[in-house]
Amino acid sequence: MPEHDTYQRLITLLDSAAVDYELIDHAPEGSTEAVSALRGHPQSEAAKCIVLRVKVDRRTTRNVLAVVPGDRRVDLAAVKTLYSARYAGFSDAETAERLARSVPGTVLPFSFDADLEVVADPDVVAQPRLYFNAARLDRSLVISGADYARLAAPRVERIAGPTVD
């Protein structure tokens, strides 16, 4: 598995922007449900980050980092409509890891790759406290949704489906 400098890159970004953040060390975990329990907050306050492959037409494929509340699923039909695409689905693991520069379960709601466009649901940027794994299975980060929106500059669109039971 390749080494990624994504964690340090994130911390450098936050420090250089003088953003208030909190680090939380915990047992290694990549599942949103399980890590939210370890961190002690509702899943709705977590950022679930999924790399998608969106085929706009026969020649154009876009890579999209969909960021939704942790208690919701990505609405693939909404993403497809958003891009007027023929297809929207999950990226393969190898491509997702390369673009996100982190392993599954640790994908940040930020993109450090020009080929990975970030789309966040409005309920993510509205969170007073937004939790996510910090490109590591054993460490999470908390920032405000407003600071996240300012730094990550995601396209903000309704892309979350209903609450997961």
From TrEMBL:
Task: Output the Gene3D superfamilies linked to this UniProt entry.
Answer: YbaK/aminoacyl-tRNA synthetase-associated domain
**SUPFAM superfamilies registered for this protein in UniProt:** YbaK/ProRS associated domain
- Known Pfam families for this protein? tRNA_edit
Upper lineage is:
Bacteria, Bacillati, Actinomycetota, Actinomycetes, Kitasatosporales
Name-wise, this protein is YbaK/prolyl-tRNA synthetase associated domain-containing protein
User: What residues does the YbaK/aminoacyl-tRNA synthetase-associated domain cover?
Assistant: 28-151
